């Protein structure tokens, strides 16, 4: 595949791996968190950890929108789609995310709920046009990458007077979550290991740019490298982080300069800011309530806000107390340290946030990484 | 003097199936004789019995059954009818057998167009004739509108396997080679592209095909050195190898760079966040072959049109955890696990 194979070149990868090996100091450990599930997926799928020196450890962060969606929001969506007039449009891997009682949208669909798996907001618009008497609700989820298409969808719905289309908004913000990881007392209390640097998601920065991360790097003294999702992107980002740590720098660097700028996509940001505003707080699975980390529709667009329209109120449900997701996504524990991992909590029956989608830390570890740890244990 | 009752001809062009076509009356008889017998025509069906009698050759009999509920019914490279014939032939053939006879049971939704039914039946007949296999028994049921997704087909296949050949998923041994007959994921991607309207300049076409002739040349080259054969349909290569690993109590180690995947399939999978090794195939097989004859079997596969892209992709290894592992193109390792439920596209 043109423009993809070039970033999957084994020889170049091994060259970067050698550079990392040559530049790391044997006297210290390097712990880098890849915030985004897309990076977790790349690291696992390409077996990148096998190319890294033993003292460079990747910590899988919370950055998969499905993983961090709290059970309460799934409960709310199921309550919503219990209404016979509602057609709920969802993105694919949200279907398996568990609610508070282990129920999911997949199960609700099997029980007769009108749930449609869509690939874009355009599908929801098409459905609303085809069924003007239905209440078509789009389950909006994702970080800054997927927010502009939701904003555009609302614009189109307004223009076309699609009165039956609304949004159940669950869009969240990356920098706020990163801030929370570094500061949230709930996480601090888990005795998490220090994080020496972050790999930030490039697709988010194509929208917001690299600038929003600068205060974080400054405040917490952590280097951040915004990186693409191809394996060579990730390897190069790790090398950049190693160099920053060695040189005692904590800057925001842009590995993905082929698409990311400091300012980001001004038009997309304007579109989002016209339609959405910050929630005071939003619940994240595994992190609890995080201030200023979620978006909601502005009052002017209340007619398109499913929560207002159907008067579905915020629920609060507790995570499974035995679940160690909170510590895992902080790097304090590994998936195998959780007694639920691989027993009651598997990709087929996920309990915690990290097992929900294929990009979650536990799910990725289950699918791709178990063998590495087992072999490390056997040889150590 | 008997008077022949007048009966309107089947309107194959514009007509639709209604409940009378499944009621056991004249309309049903007309549908069977005018459409199915026309399509499948052979000496057994011509006798119009509820069963067919056939001679049994030397060897052991092989029997399989399968249901087809594919959506959409027509896809690039085939339709539910040709798929049903190929799929059932392949399930028989994976035992090393020569497939001989099929049965076909149709559950048709009221309102289904005759033109579609005829196209599907004709393609079944053509697929069976091309494979030298006969559809010798069948059944037709019509259900009310909304009770089926257009058309479901259930098939049974019967074949004969030669004495001395006993392929089974519990027979893989450490050191055996893993061979695949060609590129993976074609069928699943063809179906998904059609479902999701994912269009590419290069259309991905289903690999739906009958593999028994390929199996015959493999058996001729490898005989009982072929331990296991499977066609990796739902769940793809990953599911097939995990099943064999569990049944044979060992693991597999694969080389990612050896696994053939067409660029258009790889691109579609990238786009949808899927993995080709989890995607269904309908014209490919996986063979676990003893190392001494693996090269000979692979050469025989490559010499056959349905195996021209065949590849040796790895080996069976001792592993009490029964992991299927893969050396990535990067020099790292990963586990190739079963698919978890339905393969769903990722959000971002």
UniProtKB/TrEMBL annotation, chain A:
PANTHER family, A to Z: HYDROGENASE MATURATION FACTOR HYPD, HYDROGENASE PROTEIN ASSEMBLY PROTEIN HYPD
Family per similarity comment: Belongs to the HypD family.
One annotated GO molecular function: 4 iron, 4 sulfur cluster binding
Record bears the keyword Metal-binding: yes
Keywords per UniProt: Iron, Metal-binding
Record-given protein name: Hydrogenase maturation factor
Gene3D superfamilies reported in the protein's UniProt record: 6.10.20.100, HypD, alpha/beta domain 1
GO biological process, alphabetically ordered: protein maturation
Residues spanning the membrane: none
Pfam family, one: HypD
């Amino acid at each position: 595949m043109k423009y993809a194979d070039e970033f999957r070149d084994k020889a170049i990868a091994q060259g970067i791996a050698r550079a990392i090996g040559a530049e790391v100091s044997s006297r210290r450990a390097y712990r880098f968190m890849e915030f985004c599930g897309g990076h977790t997926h790349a690291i696992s799928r390409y077996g990148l950890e096998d190319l890294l020196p033993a003292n460079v450890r990747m910590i899988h962060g919370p950055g998969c929108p499905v993983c961090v969606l709290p059970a309460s929001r799934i409960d709310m969506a199921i309550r919503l789609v219990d209404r016979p007039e509602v057609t709920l449009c969802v993105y694919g891997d949200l279907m398996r995310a568990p609610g508070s009682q282990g129920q999911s949208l997949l199960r609700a669909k099997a029980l007769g709920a009108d749930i449609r798996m869509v690939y874009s907001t355009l599908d929801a618009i098409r459905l609303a046009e085809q069924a003007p008497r239905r209440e078509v609700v789009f389950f909006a989820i994702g970080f800054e990458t997927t927010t502009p298409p939701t904003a555009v969808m609302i614009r189109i719905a307004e223009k076309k007077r699609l009165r039956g289309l609304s949004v159940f908004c669950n869009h969240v913000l990356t920098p706020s979550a990163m801030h929370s990881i570094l500061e949230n007392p709930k996480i601090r209390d888990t005795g998490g290991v220090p994080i020496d640097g972050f790999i930030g998601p490039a697709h988010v920065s194509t929208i917001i740019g690299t600038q929003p991360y600068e205060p974080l790097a400054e405040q917490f003294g952590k280097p951040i490298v915004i990186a693409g999702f191809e394996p060579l992107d990730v390897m190069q980002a790790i090398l950049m982080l190693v160099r920053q740590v060695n040189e005692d720098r904590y800057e925001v660097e842009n590995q993905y300069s082929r698409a990311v700028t400091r300012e980001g996509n001004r038009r997309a940001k304007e579109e989002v800011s016209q339609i959405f505003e910050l929630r005071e707080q939003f619940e994240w699975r595994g992190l609890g309530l995080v201030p200023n980390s979620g978006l909601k529709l502005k009052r002017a667009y209340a007619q398109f806000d499913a929560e207002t329209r159907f008067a579905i109120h915020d629920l609060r449900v507790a995570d499974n107390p035995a679940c160690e997701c909170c510590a895992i996504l902080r790097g304090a524990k590994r998936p195998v340290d959780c007694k639920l991992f691989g027993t009651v909590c598997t990709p087929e029956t996920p309990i915690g946030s990290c097992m929900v989608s294929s990009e979650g830390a536990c799910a990725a570890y289950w699918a791709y990484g178990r063998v590495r740890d087992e072999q490390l244990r056997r040889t150590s | 003097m008997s008077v022949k009752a007048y009966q309107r001809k089947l309107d194959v062009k514009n007509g639709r199936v209604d409940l009378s076509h499944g009621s056991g009356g004249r309309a049903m008889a007309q549908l069977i004789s005018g459409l199915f017998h026309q399509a499948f025509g052979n000496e057994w069906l011509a006798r119009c019995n509820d069963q067919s009698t056939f001679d049994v050759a030397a060897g052991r009999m092989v029997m399989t059954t399968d249901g087809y509920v594919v959506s959409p019914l027509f896809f690039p490279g085939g339709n539910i009818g040709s798929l049903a014939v190929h799929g059932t032939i392949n399930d028989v053939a994976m035992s090393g057998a020569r497939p001989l006879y099929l049965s076909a049971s149709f559950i048709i939704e009221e309102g289904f167009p005759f033109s579609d039914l005829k196209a599907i039946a004709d393609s079944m007949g053509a697929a069976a004739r091309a494979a030298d296999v006969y559809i010798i028994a069948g059944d037709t049921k019509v259900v009310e509108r909304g009770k089926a997704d257009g058309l479901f087909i259930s098939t049974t296949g019967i074949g004969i396997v030669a004495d001395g050949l006993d392929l089974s998923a519990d027979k893989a041994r450490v050191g055996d080679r893993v061979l695949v007959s060609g590129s993976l994921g074609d069928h699943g991607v063809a179906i998904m592209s059609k479902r999701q309207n994912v269009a590419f300049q290069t259309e991905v076409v289903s690999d739906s095909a009958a593999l028994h002739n390929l199996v015959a040349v493999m058996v001729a080259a490898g005989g009982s050195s072929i331990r296991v054969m499977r066609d990796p349909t739902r769940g793809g290569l990953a599911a097939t190898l995990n099943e064999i690993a569990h049944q044979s109590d060992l693991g597999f180690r694969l080389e990612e760079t050896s696994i053939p995947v067409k660029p258009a399939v790889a691109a579609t999978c990238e786009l949808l966040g899927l993995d080709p090794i989890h995607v269904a195939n309908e014209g490919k097989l996986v063979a676990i072959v003893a190392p001494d004859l693996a090269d000979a079997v692979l050469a025989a596969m490559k010499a056959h049109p349905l195996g021209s892209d065949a590849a040796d992709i790895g080996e069976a290894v001792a592993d009490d955890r029964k992991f299927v592992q893969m050396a990535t193109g990067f020099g790292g390792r990963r586990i190739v696990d079963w698919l978890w439920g339905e393969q769903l596209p990722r959000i971002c």
